[in-house]
Amino acid sequence: MTTHARSTAEARAAEMSVGAPTGRRPVEPVPRWAVRVAHAIPLCVLPSGLWRVALVLGLAGHDADYDWAVWERPYVIGLSVVSEGLALSALGLVRPWGEVVPRWVPGLLPAVVVPAAVGAVLIMLFCAYAVLKQIFGFVEPLNENGDGSPTSGPAAWALWATYAPLLAWGPLLAILTVAYYRRRRANDASAAARPEAG
Fold first, then answer.
1. Which letter, b or e, does each residue of 38-59 get, where b requires 16 or more Cβ atoms within 10 Å of its Cβ?
2. Is there a contact between 134 and 50 (Cβ–Cβ < 8 Å)?
3. How confident is the model at residue 16 (pLDDT cuts 50, 70, 90)?
4. d(CA 22, CA 127)
């Protein structure tokens, strides 16, 4: 096989969508804006994870003398790793490894769309609660001195600057989920309307 033919075959395979019969181009390939949104999601989550790691290492400029319980540091690091892993899973809504699936796999669309939609809603609710909690003080502060988080100075600015991008995570995931659902439905309808080759 020549280099040109091989690169053409690889390009076709990369463009195939979930539910599209083998060797056929999808009716709706992944739009560029969706790819950008999928890549933006992990970048929105990364700053808060880095801040939590800095907090555990005593580099965040807040509570350097805090007496950590045995389980707290692994929990904070684990929260950062799990959050970033979940954010990276959004790439499956636009990448070939999340889009190319044999037609015989049943119920894939709900198996992808339902968790992504539920995740987007939960993230938005959690972010709304966190913001409202900061504004109205729904719960008592967690530590002895009455401060649950830094309230002034560079540590407070770092906290807000690293957590503010999280507010975009839920809406971006919701937009990406709707785009994935519409693209899949269009590709499935097109595949059903055309007779199978051979």
1. bebbbebbbbbbbbbeebbeee
2. no
3. very low
4. 41
Find the distance separating the first CA and the last CA of the chain, reported in whole Å: 23
CA distance 156 to 101: 46
Please determine, for residue 111, whether its predicted confidence score (pLDDT) is greater than 90: no
Please write down the long-range contacts of 69-76, taking CB distance under 8 Å and 24 or more positions apart: 76/52
* Cα angle 53-57-62, degrees, rounded to a multiple of 5: 90
Q: Which two tokens stand for residue 147?
A: 């401060």
Q: If you write DSSP's letter for every residue of 108-176 in order, what string do you get?
A: HHHHHHHHHHHHHHHHHHHHHHHHHHHHH--S--SSTTS-SS--SHHHHHHHHHHHGGGGGHHHHHHHH
131, two tokens: 């913001």
177 vs 135: which has the higher pLDDT: 177
Supply the pTM of this predicted model: 0.75
Q: What does the alpha-carbon distance between residue 73 and residue 69 come to, in Å, rounded to a whole number?
A: 8
